[in-house]
What does this fold into?
Amino acid sequence: MQPLRAAPALTLAVLLGPVLAGLAGTIAPALGYLPALGGEGVSLSPVRTLLDWPGLPRAVGLSVFTGAAATVLSLSVVILFVAGWQGTRVLNWLERMLAPLLSVPHAAAAFGLAFLIAPSGWIVRALSPWATGWDRPPDVLILQDPLGLSMIAGLVVKEVPFLLLMTLAALPQCQPAHRLTIARALGYGRVTGWMKTVFPAVYRQIRLPVYAVLAYSMSVVDLAIILGPTTPPPLTVQVVRWMSDPDLSLRFPAAAAAILQFALVLGAIGLWRLGEVFFGRLGRGWTESGARRSGDGAFRVAGLGLATGSASAVLAGLAGLAVWSVAGFWAFPDVLPDSMTLRAWARHGSSLAGPALDTLWIAGAATALALALTLACLEAEHRFGLVPGARSLWLLYLPLLIPQVAFLPGLQSFALVARVDMGRGAVVLGHLVFVLPYVFLSLLAPWRAWDTRYGVVAAALGARPGAVFLRVRLPMLLAPVLTAGAVGMAVSVGQYLPTLLIGGGRVQTLTTEAVALASGGDRRVIGVTALAQAGAALLGFAVALAVPRWLWRNRRGVQGA
Amino acid sequence: MRPIARLLMFLACVFAAPALAEPDPDDWPAILDEARGQTVYWNAWAGSTATNAFIRWAGDRVADRYGVRVEHVKLADTADAVSRVLAEKTAGRDDGGAVDLIWINGANFAAMKEAGLLFGPWVAALPNWPLVDVAGKPAVVSDFTVPTEGLESPWAMAQVVFYYDTARLPDPPRNMAALLDWAQAHPGRFTFPQPPDFLGTTFLKQALYGLVPDPVLLQRPVDAVDYAMVTAPLWQFLEDLTPNLWRKGRAYPQTGPRQIQLMADGEIDLAISFSPGEASTAISNGQLPDTVRTFVLDGGTIGNASFVAIPYNATAKAGAMVLANFLLSPEAQARAQDPAVLGYGTVLALDKLSPEDRARFDALDLGIATLTPEDLGPTLPEPHPSWMTRIEADWTARFGGAD
It folds into this structure.
């Protein structure tokens, strides 16, 4: 079983190799070294150019503010909702909505939200002119507002489903029903009791996903381009702009800004950590004070309202894009287009077939690899009693914590030097870096929560460890394994920069097509490609839902597990 | 063989190989031979349904006739292709590159030429090159005043136009002073793409043309003139205009085509474009109402040409040349000029064409929102590229960076 023992090391190498190689390839130009552009020596001039950029303070402020606000809000919504509704039918219902919400790519969700809330958007259209008196859209700044509020809203509606999934996965290990029953027997309200007894245990488990949300929100590019301010934009968007400027000398400050962005993320996580300690103390005092009820009813209503509101925003936005994809001419303030036509689908549908196949192929391969590595790691941990320290988990998260713009260009150079680029295989490996942490993350808690006594029983009946794994543990955990795979598929489907940079533009997926076509701003085309993207991601969730049901159609005990 | 001799033989082969791989542009039959069976990865901006369809059409023709397969690498930004070539050069990949042909604009061309990232010269060797209107359209041999030197082949003429909705704006302003008056009277109804988007910067240059006393100054590098004095009227104009822009100039559309949606939604009444046929094409696509029309400013507007270039390390150079040559054919040029297809101006001199070829152009219906070549009026040359860089940086510092 030597290979299995090596699994954790192999997994870390697969993750860290590309990240470190990529970082090196970014640090060098940040310090002035990039021979192809005449940067032969080390200098601080890229840093100086960056510091001279007049937009820097605001761009940095925006990145930090939007990232922190989106994380605080997303976490609050999820906690409020779960605290108020755990164990109820409402929660089960929203849990079922998770798959479609997770499969909507960030850019598609952003376009959908933009069409909802813009001054010429669906909400204003529904109220105009009869209620507002507007026969032309009002000239008010909603999208791209200087504070980044619409961008924060976009991030929240996309991060809430992810954090909710992580929270629900972590819950079973915290015996929430048990704790809550005791708390309620002691006279605590539902929300208060949950916050005092369950939340601390849950938070410990979702801490890393929260950091990932923080890092992602601070460095998101596609969503920020659609919803975020532009005068100046958040720092990562400026990095991308400099990277794509015809003036090639701007690659140097771009690299310096990418490193600054990385430092900002690290700093923000550090501050968040301090905040955890601070609020942990505060919370402890509150818990020990013995207060029984603190506005429970209001919190329940708020939690439900926010959670359903954010889910509805994504779904309504997607519905808006669906209508656009079949719209003829559609003027303001009409709620629906003059005429419906399938022209956009006929035009683009056929050219999406090839990219769709490649998308599924790449996502399937990357997810399969990620699942294999994850299962091998977890099984090795179980069989050899390896106790993974918190540090190795941190390493696992590294690709999610480092902004993509900080290491992908460097990774591209690395792939070029090694001549392992331009093919689908290389793109699969590039995606693996991002898919693996999410798969690992999704599977970790349910896998560890498995009752090992089943294994002991099977071993007592003569099964070898391999057979226990294949015939007992894997079948019992099939549903979480497939769910983790579905999350991985969705992550892979949404990857833009890794596909473009490592594939050299020659590997075209639904997402690269969608981004290229969206640059023209034609909502019909955006509607078609966004639906195609969401459909591809949804496929994984459909499989995760259908296969266990079909396989265990006559085994009710496993179905319940 | 002695070891030394063997080593020399080996080295000779190694160094000879790249030279053999380079096609000789002057031997066209050999180019055609070599191109057959090649796949050309044409990296081109893909935000327009019309251009994507045209590229597909051109690819089909070239495949039928010359056995060259064309793959449209759909880009959100031309710079992605430039980045790719640059990354390849950084990594020492001087052959077998991913990019075979780029639809390139002036600023990217200047940068690639400067960094030695282009193959050529090859353009003068194209069989269709003699049909190009070099005398009448100087923009086909100098891109943003940078001489092309045969490193990029023109395939379409572009000229600044404005489009407007006659249902809301019957009489559009026809010079920069009138534009400012109108914007002050109707705040929030005009905007332009945010510089450094090239169309946004073009608006600034066009405004400069309308505001400087002596436009000849713009042909010189900024260092050779009194930049502060020449641009003072421009900054004053923008100080007055910006608060009256859409969203008071606190947000801008990020690209030219985004303005189409703003116009359709009724958010703006007037928009700038670099494609004289864009409005007609958008009307026929159902993106704009059929009340939209096009006009040009009094005194002429900036014109330039669209080009394709081959990176120095392209894999299918011969195939790329065959494709570029096809794009210069009267057949492709007439199709590109058709507003139902693209609506781009031709780079050819119509008087050099055969009567049959000229008939293709005469037969075109230019579309309701497209101006005839006469109505397009005089084209102004692009200012020296140093203006673009300087104005962009100053605009960003004044209006795009911080309050």
Summary: DSSP finds 26 helices and no strands in chain A. Chain A has a mean pLDDT of 89.
